[in-house]
Each structure stands twice: as structure tokens, then as C-alpha cells.
Amino acid sequence: MTVEWDWIADHTGELTALSVSHLQAALTAVLLGLLISLPLAVLAHRVRQLRGPLLGIANVLFTIPSIAIFVLLLPVSGLTRTTTVTGLTVYTLVVLLRNTVDGLDAVPAKAREAAKAMGARPLRTLLTVELPLALPVIMAGVRIATVMSISLVSVATYIGDGGLGQLFTDGFQRNFPTPVLAGVVLTLLLALVADALLVAVEYVLTPWNRKGRRA
Amino acid sequence: MIEFRAVHKRFANGTTAVHDLTLSMPAGGITVLVGSSGCGKTTTLRMINRMVEPTSGTIHVDGRDICSQDAALLRRSIGYVIQQSGLFPHRTVLDNIATVPLLLGWGRRKARTRAAELLETVGLAHDAGKRYPHQLSGGQQQRVGVARALAADPPVLLMDEPFGAVDPVVRTQLQDELLRLQKELDKTIVFVTHDIAEAIRLGDRIAVFRTGGRLVQCATPAELLARPADPFVADFLGAERGLMLLSLIPLGDLPRRPVPEGGRWELVLGPGRRPKGWRDRSAGDGDGALLPVRPLRDGDSLLSALNESVGSPCGLVVRVDTEGALTGVTSREEVHDRAGTAHASAARAASAPPEPAPRAGDHPPVADPAPASAPGTTGGAP
């Protein structure tokens, strides 16, 4: 099995376009997943009775096989990008929802109580105290969800999307390994770079975790 | 002025935290709520800023019913210092202090300027402002907690066991600082502690609670020590009650005598006539080892004098002026005599105006051991 570098050189434009499309699908899914998870997590955190059902539903959704989820969505949104992103979003929920709830649970009770005692109302407490303090745990979830989504996009090749996944079908059909290898390597690179960027984002957003203890 | 009128707090699980409390806390004074754990002192404190809502009864702060005000706005108008500081771990010291000003909409610059000012007020270095709470020592964190409570200059300050988590040396420093601040700022302070010595040291008035949320006695420290209302209070004050009373009485005009010439012990003076220690003449010549002396100023208490008289090798207490220069000595016998008479007169003074200390038993019905079953007693808040 040899890599034909000429093919890669001839297809750089296509490879770049596929990478961008791949990343777009994955990141949109994570973003939507966050938008859905945040309010649900706050709800699950505040109303104890809702916690079990909400986390349970997210877990059940996660057990649906990925191909099945795209097929199930076909009657609704057809062979579109929407189907890809919707499917991926469903998978991000299980990680994002649980981590956000865990993150909110980990906020020290003293800090929450102090905010209330200083006269902050609940929304302000959430935005300025609870979410910032939950951020490290939420970000851990975002990192997992991002890497997972990047690897999952390829499955959407079955519905005609799939970003870099298209290289796999192309390579298999023609019994030509170079596109397959290029697809694998590019997917890995995207995942690594995205993860590194998220680590950097967390570093910037949590200055209090960098400063060491008093000498 | 904070006024509790017939305040009752029963929690959802049926326990009564505060039982029929009627108590007024004078403006510009430190009222200490003291008692063993589970006696309702913290609940009482937390009802003042509505962190806990009373089941029935009313609480007025400066003449206004607190339940008629928006809870969040009320809390911004009352300073609150929390156990173990309760600082926001993700905000710098400066931003922690600026919390309430920012909530009040002061604008970031003005709030930070005020916060920087307060750093100095509570005795912290300017560069501490840029640090995060976990980079500070326990005592420093507690100072930040006090600064945060003072930021919007509230007339009332609630302090919930603020110095409970720091070591004794730092605690004494923080207590001194609080007394100094209070002299400057003249706030109405409500202070919760389970440490009776702290209560005696800080309180203008002390309210003693017992299990079941009953107020047993509220009095000045001297009154409380001289005439505890019942065996429970006496027991709570402990075996050293008499000595604690002496800690409240200054040495003042106790006569000073010249240092005796000759004899076995010689008082060695340093520059500025500052006492350095006692030298044993019988131990031969030379400088020898000096026995340390802790000279007392007129503002020091009779208790310190008693302590010194016990420790002094010749039974003499060394007295100095505010500069630390020797003014004379006082004998052990004179200190003891004064301690005895001071104790007796404090007890007499405390009993002279028989102030009706609000006690649980003062309010009808006299005995209420069973949970109140009258449905009308709940839901008193509007």
C-alpha cells in the first residue's frame, strides 16, 4: 500500500474544501449542542426531579446507532446538511448535558450563597458566578463532544454528506488507498488542532486556575 | 437599630430554629449572638437580610419592615461577612470587594477605586488587589471578606462567625482591627460566634441563646458576667467567669509606688526608662539572666495585672505610660484587693437597674414545650 503523493498534490483544493466542510458540520453540532444543553442543564440542576429523566433521555439518544439516526431523520430533512448536523447534535447532548450539570454541581455552595447574600439575583448569579466556576468541567465536555463529532461526521457519507468521509467511500470503491489515508490523517489533524484550541480557550477564560498558591 | 418582634422560625422539617424572639439591637453598637451550635443564632442573623424568611413576627431595620422590601435590594444595603470568607474564587480580590458596588450600578472604574481604598482600610497591601483569594492566607481572606461587606458603606453589618477558621493569634489581630474599624465607622454590627471570650471582647451587648432557639439573656458583657440570668448562662460563661469580668475593668488609677530600693530583685531599665526585666541580686554579679517583665499601661485590664502579679518574681506589677516609660509599680496585694472590690461593685451595678432581660419565659404562654398547633401562627409574613 503506497501513498500516491501526486494524487494528493492534484487534489489539495478538494481536500481543503472537504476539511472545511467537515469541521463546519462538527463545530455547528457542538455549538447547537451547547445551546440546547445549557438551559436544560440549569433546569436539571435546579429542579432535582428533572435531572434523572433529562440525563436518561440523553443517554438513550446516545445508544441509537449513528447510521440509524441519519436514516430516521431522512423523512424530516432529507439528504441535507441539516440532517448531518442534527444527528451529530443529538450525540453531543449526552456529554454536554452531563458535564454541564456536573459543573454546576461542583460550584462551591459558599460562592453561590455569597452571591445571593450580596444581593445578586438568580440570573446574574448564574452568569457571573455559577457558569464561570463550572467552566472547567463544561469545557472538558466540550472537548470530548468536539473530538467525537469530528470523528462522527464521516458516517454522514451514507446520506451524501460526510466531509472527509467522502474520501473513504471514494477510495474503497476504486480500491485506491491514498484518499482513505488522506482522509484519516486529515480527520486526526482536525481533532488534534480543535482540541488544542479548546485547551487554549479554557486557559484564557480561567485566569484564576493558573495562579499558583501563595508561596 | 434592628428590632425583632415576636419572631418565630420553624423549618420545613418541623424543627424550631428561633422561638418567639423579641430583641432590639441598638444602632452603632456591636450585638453579639452567642450560644452552642443549633441554638438559632445564625438563623437569627440570616433573617435580618432575608437569607432565611421568618415564619411569623416582624423584623425592622431602621424602622422599616424588611419584608416590605425587595429581598435583593435589601441585601445590597446590608453588609454580610460569611464564615470562612465565602469569597468568589474566580474573581480577583479587588473585584470581590467591588461586588456590591457593581450590583448597585456604580460603574467599573468607580467600584474599583472604592475597592482599592478599602484594601487599605482593612490593612491589606495594595498589590493584594490583583491576587485571587486562594493566593491569600486565611486571615487575609477574612480581611477581604470584611472589605467586601463594607464596600457600599452599609449602615448594618452582619458577621457570621467570621473569625472562626483562623488561628488564635490572627483571630486576636482581626478582633482588634474590627474594634478599631468600628470606632471609625460606627456601624450597627450583629456578630455571631460560639466563642464566649470573643463575645466578651467584641460585644457592646451579648445575647445568649439556648437550644430550641430561645433567647435566655441579653445584656452588656459586665452585666452578663456579674449576673447571669440562670444556671444555663452561668454554665455557658464557664468557670472563669469572674476572671473574664476583670478583663473588662481597666487598671486605671490603681496607685503606683516607687520601685523599692534594695531587696533581692532589681528592675533593670533600658533607654527611655523602659523596663527590661528583673535581675536577681543574690545570683552574683554581672548582668546575669533577666527575668522578663510585661509592663502594663493604664488601659490594660485588671485581669492582665492579676496575671502579671502571679508571674512576677517579687509580686510587683510594673506600670508604664503610653510611651512605655516606667511610672511605678503596684503590689500583688493591691491588685488583688482592687480585683475583689471591682468584682463586687460590677455585680452591684449590674443588679441596680433591674433591666428586664427578654427571656423566652417572659412571653405568654409561659411554657410551650409542644409544637404550636395553632394554624394562625404561620404565614405571618405579608
UniProtKB/TrEMBL annotation, chain A:
<feature type="transmembrane region" description="Helical">
    <location>
        <begin position="133"/>
        <end position="160"/>
    </location>
</feature>
<dbReference type="InterPro" id="IPR000515">
    <property type="entry name" value="MetI-like"/>
</dbReference>
<feature type="transmembrane region" description="Helical">
    <location>
        <begin position="180"/>
        <end position="205"/>
    </location>
</feature>
<dbReference type="InterPro" id="IPR035906">
    <property type="entry name" value="MetI-like_sf"/>
</dbReference>
<comment type="similarity">
    <text>Belongs to the binding-protein-dependent transport system permease family.</text>
</comment>
<dbReference type="InterPro" id="IPR051204">
    <property type="entry name" value="ABC_transp_perm/SBD"/>
</dbReference>
<dbReference type="GO" id="GO:0055085">
    <property type="term" value="P:transmembrane transport"/>
</dbReference>
<feature type="transmembrane region" description="Helical">
    <location>
        <begin position="20"/>
        <end position="42"/>
    </location>
</feature>
<keyword id="KW-1133">Transmembrane helix</keyword>
<keyword id="KW-0472">Membrane</keyword>
<keyword id="KW-0812">Transmembrane</keyword>
<dbReference type="GO" id="GO:0005886">
    <property type="term" value="C:plasma membrane"/>
</dbReference>
<feature type="transmembrane region" description="Helical">
    <location>
        <begin position="79"/>
        <end position="97"/>
    </location>
</feature>
<keyword id="KW-0813">Transport</keyword>
<dbReference type="GO" id="GO:0031460">
    <property type="term" value="P:glycine betaine transport"/>
</dbReference>
<feature type="transmembrane region" description="Helical">
    <location>
        <begin position="54"/>
        <end position="73"/>
    </location>
</feature>
<protein>
    <submittedName>
        <fullName>ABC transporter permease</fullName>
    </submittedName>
</protein>
<dbReference type="Pfam" id="PF00528">
    <property type="entry name" value="BPD_transp_1"/>
</dbReference>
<feature type="domain" description="ABC transmembrane type-1">
    <location>
        <begin position="19"/>
        <end position="198"/>
    </location>
</feature>
